[in-house]
Design a protein that fits this description.
Layout (H helix, E strand, L loop, with lengths): L8 H23 L11 E24 L4 E6 L6 E2 L4 E5 L2 H29 L5 H26 L2 E3 L4 E6 L6 E2 L4 E18 L11 E6 L4 E10 L9 E9 L12 E12 L3 H25 L8
Antiparallel strand pairs: 1-8, 1-12, 2-4, 2-7, 3-6, 4-5, 6-8, 8-11, 9-10, 9-12, 10-11
Helix pairs in contact: 2-3
Length: about 300
């Protein structure tokens, strides 16, 4: 059977009054004692203030590639996610029609050149008017220009990488018909990456260009150190957040674009701090005094709310 004994209110009041008087006398005695203090100079130190923000990763330079001429894709040389080197062949079109057009242009240049040489001899002997000679001269220049155009079109059936990086995505497959200028491949330089963070407007004042930032990538369970390179000038109307770009080195290309959609960034801030042994000692003394006061009250009051018999 559970029994509980409750002290009368008058007894509790009497004991509490006694302790209060004792505590007051002790405080008056201790207040008369001199308290040693230590003066320390305020110093500037760097502290890390963490800002947890959402964001995403993109390559340092991302390029969408397409053919400058229309045609059917005949070959794609690289698989998605594979590295590519600047100048390497990425894809080709079926070039038969462009090759035939180039051959026709070559023949037309030969014909125009032959006609020009024959009429020039007549012009030199004053057997041909100047206007007629200019006509064949212009015809030869036009044929040469057509030859250059068809040669360029033929070369445009081969797509080369303009930068070092990786193939992020194929936007078309072999056998598809692509139009002139339509993106076919996306490549990105990820030797360095950009972290797009979205900072609330009330924390934007803490971010400065050139400031270091700690970026945590959950997929790799690793923290990287980067540098703020851009601070957005206008807030998003819906979220009221500003875009901040942080550049991070990517040794081994282990960080990939789109890898995370949330990150934790720590921004180093210069503040005034006072770090002294005296302040630490005071904190310890306050804690010890609070514990001792609690023990004294507990031992003298012996107030129990109940017990199980």
């Amino acid at each position: 059977m559970n029994q509980y004994f409750i002290l009368p209110l008058a007894v509790v009041a009497t004991v509490m009054s006694f302790l209060s008087c004792r505590s007051g006398n002790t405080s008056e005695t201790e207040a008369d004692k001199p308290v040693p203090v230590i003066a320390e100079k305020v110093q500037t130190d760097s502290v890390l203030r963490s800002i947890d923000v959402s964001g995403n990763i993109e390559g340092f330079t991302t390029v969408k590639l397409g053919f400058m001429v229309a045609g059917k894709i005949s070959h794609i040389a690289v698989a998605e996610g594979r590295p590519v080197s600047k100048g390497s062949l990425l894809a080709t079109l079926d070039a038969e029609n462009y090759r035939i057009a180039k051959e026709i242009a070559d023949i037309q240049v030969l014909q125009a050149t032959d006609e020009f040489n024959r009429l020039k001899q007549m012009y030199d002997r004053n057997s041909l008017s100047e206007s007629d000679f200019k006509k064949i001269d212009f015809a030869l220049q036009a044929a040469i220009a057509q030859q250059k155009l068809h040669a360029k079109n033929l070369s445009e059936t081969r797509l080369y990488a303009p930068i070092n990086g990786i193939l992020l995505k194929k936007l078309a497959e072999v056998g598809e018909i692509t139009a002139s200028g339509m993106p076919v491949l996306v490549i990105s330089d990820i030797s360095r990456v950009k972290v797009n963070a979205y900072i609330p407007e009330n924390r934007l004042s803490e971010v400065k260009i050139g400031q270091q930032a700690k970026v945590y990538i959950a997929a790799l369970d690793k923290t990287y150190t980067g540098k703020v390179t851009e601070v957005g000038g206008m807030a998003d109307p819906a979220t009221r957040a500003f875009t901040v770009k942080i550049e991070v080195s990517n040794p081994g290309n282990v960080i990939r674009p789109g890898m995370i959609d949330r990150m934790a960034a720590g921004l180093s801030t210069q503040i005034k701090v006072l770090e002294t042994e005296a302040s630490l000692a005071k904190a310890e003394a306050d804690l010890y005094g609070a514990i001792q006061s609690f023990n004294i009250a507990k031992s003298e009051l012996h107030l129990l709310t109940g017990y199980k018999k």
